[in-house]
Write a structure and sequence with these properties.
CATH architecture: 3-Layer(aba) Sandwich
Structural class: alpha/beta
CATH superfamily: LarA, N-terminal domain
Strand content: 15-25%
Oligomer: single chain
Number of domains: 1
Number of strands: 11
Number of helices: 10
Shape: globular
Length: 305
Amino acid sequence: MAKVALIKGDDRQKNIRRALELIKEDIKLNGRHPVIKINMVSTYTPLSATHPQAVRAVVEFLKDMGENHITIAEGATLGTTARGFREYGYYDLAKEYGLELIDLNDSSSWKVAYVIHPDLKPHPVKIAQEMLDPHNYIISLTRLKTHLQVGVTLTAKNVIMGSILIMDKNRLHPTEAGNRVLDFNLFSIMQHLHIDLAILDGFEGMQGNGPIAGEPVNHQVAIAGTDFLAVDRVGTEVMGIDFDMIRYLNFLWDQGFGEGDLQKIKILGENIEDCRLAYRLSPRFLKWRRQEQKGIYQNLAWELG
């Protein structure tokens, strides 16, 4: 049974530390190098990015475990990664704790994978080697956020999109294709990646037109586990979102990437019911879902005659 820690409290850093302590026995680096994949989808919108205090909590936890060489990695989408490191205080954090900062957009080594476009042809994208290296212990650390195309962006999407080099990120979700192509492409790219520890910082989440233009949600929760899919499953639940609507996470569950059945996830700490807060989904996402559902019913009616 997958274990997921769920904590609620009035201190972001303490929430994350308490969540990690609850699953400490499952966190086994076994000599691998910890790489904390943060989220800076926009270097101009702090609410869209991983809060540095959340990173501080994880770094101090790892330091207490005896890990002295820790890397922070990201490949920003809007604005340069260097700007994000500067604006959000990561250079200061790196100096304080002796951290290594890596811009995944500048990766000198990569693997080519393939995604699809509406033309139904394979399109190549480059995945940064740092995120593929089996010797790296990948930690996905991001906020609870809604997403205007696929509903939510949590620990899985944080790693998938951030691992793609900047010139290829748009290839995953061509706007003319709605959200169906993006859901499949996220699933496809995750087959090349791994997440060893998943952490959701829901102290202040984002609702509405995420992952950039949404509005803040004062939620004050933290979620952590070594099964990233189980963590994202609990994340959708505390956001009050129907998991069945999140297609790419269901693709991953169906193909055995992790546990998506809430009945098979052991919650440590708080009860989900005590932490649930309804996030408002993006109107664009809801519109596309309604259109897709309408199309399914129309096709079914035609087939049945």
